[in-house]
Amino acid sequence: MYEIELKAHVEDRKAVIKNLERFADFSGAIEKDDTYYSNTINGKTVKARIRTETPFTTSEIQDAPQTGAQKSVIFTYKKKEVVQQDGSAVEVNDEKELFLSESEPFEVFLKDTGFKTTLKKHKTVLSWHYDGAHLELCTVERLGDFMEIEILTESNDEKTVSQTKEKLLKMLSKCGISEDKIENRYYSQMLGGENV
Hints:
With 196 residues, the protein is of the alpha+beta class. It has helices at 13-23, 104-112, 158-174, 187-190; strands at 2-9, 25-41, 44-56, 72-79, 82-85, 88-100, 116-130, 133-140, 144-153. It has an eight-stranded antiparallel beta barrel. A hairpin with a 2-residue loop joins β2 (25-41) and β3 (44-56). The protein is globular, with a radius of gyration of 17 Å. 20% of the residues are buried. The mean pLDDT is 91.
């Protein structure tokens, strides 16, 4: 599966939440702690991420369900590509994930095989679902608030990317966010790290 997504700066968090509550289904609140790793193998840079997700009960959403969910740890290997079309961009990612019972053994393996920690990132996420899309209102430490919208597709051909981008832009508009707020850089670039 391919993950096609966009992200945009959010100026009025409360207004965006109000708009999301009108059309999308709230699915929970999660804190995501990411550690990015990089290594050069056979002349090629290989990048990976370990993410710890901790669900919590938010006070920002009226009648948000109490969470009883457990923390999860996810190892991700992602091939990233930014596709520019009509002046704006979407990310098209080929993402492979593996769920871990804990992060430490895999962190030791990465370090022992030459991977270096390149970046740590923390974000707090409120999630919704709508029409096959996953919508996340994120607060990224040191960067502020963003709206991320992603759709999974079986193909990353030009027609699929174009049609999916159109759908993403319509959803962004439903959130009350204009296209000029779209951010084409990766968070890692914004945080001063490598493109991971």
